[in-house]
């Protein structure tokens, strides 16, 4: 447990696939991309706060694409912070100076500060472009006071049904970083299908509206329209699941066992449209 970490459960969507999970006094960060740029992509919303990368107990890395593995962001978190990743991803990171690695394959688990982290399947081309080796993509289920499914980046896959009714919160990707999607991704409608399969109590859409090519205008419709389409599709396909639409920098606090999710709170300095609840 990190000194100064709070009890309870709080989820902060920092942007794209980066979520800060604070549960049972442990701080876990997913696929950290914290700077203003990564490769040819720029952050089109307010920058991540410095405190987002402080006192992190573990980092979860789903796959090697540059918008999920950003080496400056990992260095900012700290070289001594354990990184949980598939063996091929861990080997790639070790070759770049990161040694605090927890290698897990699908179905395997590790423990961080009393919080269990289980690797789950994903369907995605997870190698580092342009000439990277095949690298197994992963999702993760983080279990403590609540069960939280971080899907990473994925399309639908048969084993997703194994998660049905087993998670309280699902962090589901609904788009990418450009005007179109390649194979191995969930668009808003397929993301809603995933929600209908997993049937969490609460879903927070991620992987949208944060990163865009350098030449993209901030008014580009693909930055906001996927979220609106997902809310509508989820209401149709999974009406029993609460949808919480956050903006980058917003968070939700959950009260385990009560079924209550408190309203999102915007971090200082965050900008964007007001968040909308799903139900």
What does this structure look like?
With 279 residues, the chain is of the alpha/beta class. It has one domain (9-277): Metallo-beta-lactamase, Chain A. Helix content is 14%, strand content 29%. The protein is built from 4 helices and 20 strands. The strands form 3 sheets. Strands 1, 2, 3, 6, 7, 8, 17, 18 and 19 form a 9-stranded mixed beta sheet that branches. Strands 9-10-11-12-13-14-16-20 form an 8-stranded mixed beta sheet, covered by helices on one side. The protein has a 3-stranded antiparallel beta sheet with strand order 4-5-15, with no helix packed on it. The radius of gyration is 17 Å and the shape is globular.
Which SSEs are present, and which pair or pack?
Layout: E1 9-15, E2 18-23, E3 26-30, E4 37-38, E5 41-43, E6 58-60, H1 71-77, E7 83-85, H2 87-94, E8 101-103, E9 109-112, E10 115-120, E11 139-143, E12 147-150, E13 169-173, H3 188-198, E14 202-206, E15 211-213, H4 225-237, E16 242-245, E17 250-255, E18 260-261, E19 265-266, E20 276-277
Parallel strand pairs: 3-6, 6-7, 7-8, 12-13, 13-14, 14-16
Antiparallel strand pairs: 1-2, 1-17, 2-3, 4-5, 5-15, 9-10, 10-11, 11-12, 16-20, 17-18, 17-19
Helix pairs in contact: 3-4
CATH class: Alpha Beta
| Percentage of residues in helical conformation | 10-25%
Shape: globular
How many helical elements? Answer: 4
Mean pLDDT: 88
Distance between the terminal alpha carbons, to the nearest Å? Answer: 34 Å
N-to-C order of helices and strands: EEEEEEHEHEEEEEEHEEHEEEEE
Q: Quote the beta fraction.
A: 25-35%
The CATH topology annotation reads as Metallo-beta-lactamase, Chain A
């Amino acid at each position: 447990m990190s000194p100064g970490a709070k009890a309870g459960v709080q989820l902060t969507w920092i942007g794209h696939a980066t979520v800060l999970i604070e549960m049972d006094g442990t701080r876990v960060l997913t696929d950290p991309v914290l700077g203003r740029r990564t490769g040819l992509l720029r952050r089109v919303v307010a920058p991540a706060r410095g405190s987002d990368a402080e006192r992190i107990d573990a980092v979860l890395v789903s796959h090697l694409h540059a918008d999920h593995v950003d080496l400056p962001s990992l260095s900012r978190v700290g070289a001594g912070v354990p990184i949980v990743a598939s063996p091929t991803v861990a080997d790639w990171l070790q070759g770049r100076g990161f040694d605090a690695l927890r290698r897990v394959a699908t179905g395997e688990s590790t423990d961080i500060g009393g919080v269990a982290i289980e690797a789950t399947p994903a369907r995605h081309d997870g190698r580092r472009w342009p000439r990277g080796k095949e690298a197994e993509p992963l999702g993760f289920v983080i279990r403590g006071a609540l069960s939280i499914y971080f899907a990473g980046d994925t399309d639908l896959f048969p084993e997703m049904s194994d998660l049905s009714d087993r998670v309280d919160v699902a962090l589901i990707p609904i788009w990418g970083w450009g005007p179109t999607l390649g194979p191995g991704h969930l668009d808003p409608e397929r993301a809603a299908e995933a929600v209908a399969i997993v049937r969490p109590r609460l879903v927070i859409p991620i992987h949208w509206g944060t990163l865009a090519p350098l030449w993209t205008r901030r008014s580009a419709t693909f930055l906001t329209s996927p979220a609106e389409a997902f809310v509508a599709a989820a209401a149709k396909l999974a009406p029993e699941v609460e949808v919480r639409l956050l903006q980058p920098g917003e968070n939700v606090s959950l009260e385990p066992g009560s079924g209550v999710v408190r309203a999102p709170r915007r971090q200082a300095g965050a900008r964007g449209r007001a968040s909308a609840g799903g139900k």
